[in-house]
Amino acid sequence: MRSASAVTLLTSVVAAATWTFSVTALEPAQTAKPSTSHPAGPHKHPDAAKEKNPVKPAPASVAAGKTLFDANCASCHGATGKGDGKMVSMMTPPKPLPADFTDGTWLHGGTDGEIFTIIRDGVRGTGMRGFASRMKPDDMWHVVNYVKTLAP
Known about the structure:
The protein has 152 residues and is an all-alpha fold. It is 51% helix and 0% strand. Helix 3 crosses helix 6 and helix 5 crosses helix 6 (137-150). The radius of gyration is 16 Å and the shape is globular.
């Protein structure tokens, strides 16, 4: 029983260190490229809002999005998208906390295109890094379709 707790603690520490290093390493790159990253405060993306989702929100897409969300997003946004993932306790203020997708509030715009833009580019000054180099566009659209199911 005691060794299981030690393994759990060690796993959590390694995960936190890995996440902290990856966010710290990526943040200067995001700041240096303002054209692919945008500010943390509430705003809309008029051009992105016009972008239509090429992936229909069919059950297979939503399921694929959930799988991708669980693997890439849940550590910060939480298993149910409430913004209460395990990594939240390790975030250094004053960085904004991860978005709560269940409250229906979209600080960066709530259209499919705007959500896709956040996933692709990340948000400067926060722990939200872009996934353009780690996910194919269709995969990001699957995540959009899943995340939209979490809102009221």
